[in-house]
Amino acid sequence: MPLPPLDPEIGERQTLDEIRNWYRGMVEALVDQRAAVMRAIQNGTPVAARFLGLTQAGIDAYFDAQRQELDRLATLNLVASAEASIKDDYFHRVGKQLKDSLSRAYQQWYRDLSAPKKRRPDFDEGGILDVLKDAQVMNNHIVGNYRECLRPRHWVGHGRNWETPVEIDRLDPDDVYDRCDGLLRAIPA
Predict the structure, then answer these.
(1) Nearest C-alpha neighbor of 123 from the set 143, 141, 98
(2) How far, in Å, CA of 109 to CA of 112, rounded?
(3) Distance between CA atoms of residues 61 and 57, nearest Å
(4) Does residue 5 surpass a pLDDT of 70?
(5) How far apart are CA 159 and CA 155, in angstroms?
(6) Could you say which of 12, 144, 163, 178 has the lowest number of CB atoms within 10 Å?
(7) CA separation for the pair 173, 149 (Å, rounded)
(8) How far apart are CA 36 and CA 10, in angstroms?
(9) Rounded to whole angstroms, how far apart are CA atoms 85 and 11?
C-alpha cells in the first residue's frame, strides 16, 4: 500500500513561527481595540453596539474572554502544526526507507500496522509519538512536554464537549510554542 504523498504544495501549512507571529499580531490588535474602546467611552464618542452600556468591568470581561479564546486557538494551531510536521517526517522516513535508528524504528512499527493504519497511523498513545520516544533518539521529557499540549488541542479542536483539561489554563501559547519547537528541533535529521 503506497504512503500518502508528501507534497508541500498541498494544503495551507503554517510554521510554528508563522502561527506565533499571527498570535502576537492578534494580541496587539486586541490591546489596541480595548484602548480605543476605552478612549471612545471616556470621550463620549460612538462605539460599536456590542460595547454600549457596558461598565468598565463588562469591557474588561469582554476583552479577557477574547484573549482567552485567542490563546486557545493559538494553542490548537501550534500543536496541530507540530503534529503535521512529525507525521511528515514519519512518512518521509518510512517512504524513503532511511537507515538511521529512528527511521528503522518507524519502519518496523509500520510493517505491523493494518492497511488502514498504514495510511492513517495513530499519533499519540500506541502511535508515532510512542515510537519516537521508544527509539531513544532524544530525551523522553521532550516528548512528554509536547504530549501535555495534546489534551488542550483535542479539547478545542473537537468541540469542547467534555471537561476542560487543566492544561488549558496552565499552558500559554508561548509555552506551547517552546514545547512544539523543542520537539521538532530534537528530531534527528
Answers:
(1) 143
(2) 6
(3) 6
(4) no
(5) 6
(6) 12
(7) 10
(8) 40
(9) 13
Question: Whole-angstrom Cα distance, residue 108 to residue 93?
Answer: 11
Grid cell at residue 172: 500559554
Q: What is the pTM of this model?
A: 0.91
The residue whose grid cell reads 478545542 is 156
With b for 16 or more beta-carbon neighbours within 10 A and e for fewer, the 2-30 pattern comes to: eeeeeeeeeeeebebeebbeebeebbeee
> How many whole angstroms separate alpha carbon 110 and alpha carbon 90?
10
- Cα separation, 87 vs 93, whole angstroms: 10
Question: Residue ranges per domain, the chain?
Answer: 16-186
Residue 189: burial class (beta carbons within 10 Å; 0-12, 13-18, 19+): exposed
Task: Give me the numbers of helices (H) and strands (E) for the chain, helices first please.
Answer: 9, 0
- Give the whole-angstrom CA distance, residue 58 versus residue 112: 57
Q: How does pLDDT run across 97-118, given as a tens digit for each residue?
A: 999 999 999 999 999 999 999 9
C-alpha–C-alpha distance, residues 79 and 176, integer Å = 7
- In terms of C-beta density within 10 A (0-12 exposed, 13-18 middle, 19 or more buried), how is residue 151 classed? middle
Using left for φ > 0, alpha for ψ between -120 and 50, and beta otherwise, residue 87 falls in alpha
C-alpha cell at 106: 518507524
2, pLDDT greater than 70: no
Q: How many CB atoms lie within 10 A of CB 126?
A: 11
Instruction: Tell which residue, 135, 8, 149, has the closest CA to residue 83.
Output: 149
